[in-house]
Write a structure and sequence with these properties.
Number of strands: 0
Protein name: DMT family transporter
Order of helices and strands: HHHHHHHHHHHHHHH
Family: Belongs to the EamA transporter family.
Low-confidence stretches: 1-21
Helix content: over 70%
Keywords: Membrane, Transmembrane, Transmembrane helix
Strand content: under 5%
Shape: globular
Distance between the termini: 31 Å
InterPro entries: EamA_dom, EmrE-like
Number of helices: 15
Structural class: mainly alpha
Mean pLDDT: 81
Number of domains: 1
Radius of gyration: 18 Å
Largest sheet: none
Length: 315
């Protein structure tokens, strides 16, 4: 399965019907579960790569979105020009809003990785199912009881995790707060994306979204005085690897499958980023979190299993 933007664009014309709220997973094509697994694998490399990259946090976020938007530009503007022109005003506004939420997500999460452990930051940032479930309920959609239970179990893991970091330092706790805010922004990004993807192809949506995110992050970098150039060759290589792994494999494939799997399942599956990132950080960076972090992460993963079982049990 190719993971380039071209292959993603080619999938636009063969995508299944959109899912709304909590879909019946028995009707979803198996390839979408494989794509979701690839997306989770991609984002798992995100936190360790960011931590190992010697560049300002928000500048890293800008470049990964700028490169992704640049790669998608010729594809979207040449092959999907008609679809871009056909976008309704509402669809454009929702895509812009999704880009703004994604920019807020990056602006909070990347700095948090330099303030607290990778395990804590990713666990708190990826507890988006709770916020997604709450937002869906506020929109009047029915939320199965099992999904609520799973979300609450995951949030219990969040509370345990923040309690651990509170005993470590105020800086770690502040990093937890940023990561939690980033998770809330990510849920808005997933929900808006699922709405846009009901009638818009992956390439067109991600092009508009990533471009918006890049412009907003560029403004943030200029306002805060973060250096955008002058990096070493090793730093540029890691930024490119981050773009391929996290942006194209992670975010773009998530945008692809949120159409059929629904925002709750996609945001819940991203919780698997936590153990993946922690394992990579331990092997590559030698960063081992406190022992008390592990039961908290376990609660988060139990919540994931409960939410998925709740969605599978729907008639």
């Amino acid at each position: 399965m190719q993971t380039s933007p071209t292959s993603t664009a080619g999938a636009d014309t063969a995508e299944p019907p959109p899912a709304v709220g909590h879909p019946d997973l028995s009707t979803v094509p198996r390839i979408d579960f494989l794509l979701l697994a690839l997306a989770v694998s991609g984002v798992a490399f995100s936190a360790p790569l960011i931590t190992a990259t010697a560049a300002p946090a928000v500048a890293i976020a800008f470049w990964r979105n700028c490169v992704a938007a640049g790669v998608l530009s010729p594809i979207a503007l040449l092959r999907h020009r008609a679809e871009l022109r056909a976008m309704s005003r509402r669809t454009v506004l929702l895509s812009l809003a999704a880009g703004a939420f994604l920019a807020a997500h990056f602006a909070m999460w990347l700095p948090s990785l330099r303030m607290t452990s990778i395990a804590s930051s990713t666990a708190l940032c990826t507890v988006t199912p709770l916020w997604t479930t709450l937002f869906l309920r506020l929109r009047g959609q029915h939320v199965p009881r099992t999904v609520w239970i799973g979300s609450c179990v995951a949030f219990a893991g969040v509370l345990v995790l923040t309690g651990v970091d509170f005993t470590l330092s105020a800086r770690a706790l502040a990093g937890d707060g940023l990561a939690l805010g980033a998770g809330i922004a990510a849920s808005g990004y997933f929900l808006l994306g699922s709405e846009v993807r009901r009638n818009t192809g992956t390439t067109v949506y991600t092009f508009v979204c990533y471009t918006t995110t890049a412009v907003l992050l560029l403004a943030a970098c200029l306002a805060s005085g973060q250096a955008l150039t002058g990096y070493s060759a090793d730093t540029w290589t890691k930024i490119l690897l981050l773009t391929v792994a996290a942006q194209f494999l992670g975010h773009s494939l998530s945008n692809r499958v949120v159409r059929t799997l629904g925002p709750s399942l996609v945001s819940t599956a991203i919780l698997l980023e936590t153990p993946g990132a922690a394992l990579i950080a331990a092997v590559w960076l030698g960063q081992l979190p406190p022992v008390a972090v592990y039961p908290a992460v376990a609660l988060v993963l139990v919540g994931l299993v409960v939410v998925i079982r709740g969605q599978q049990g729907r008639p």
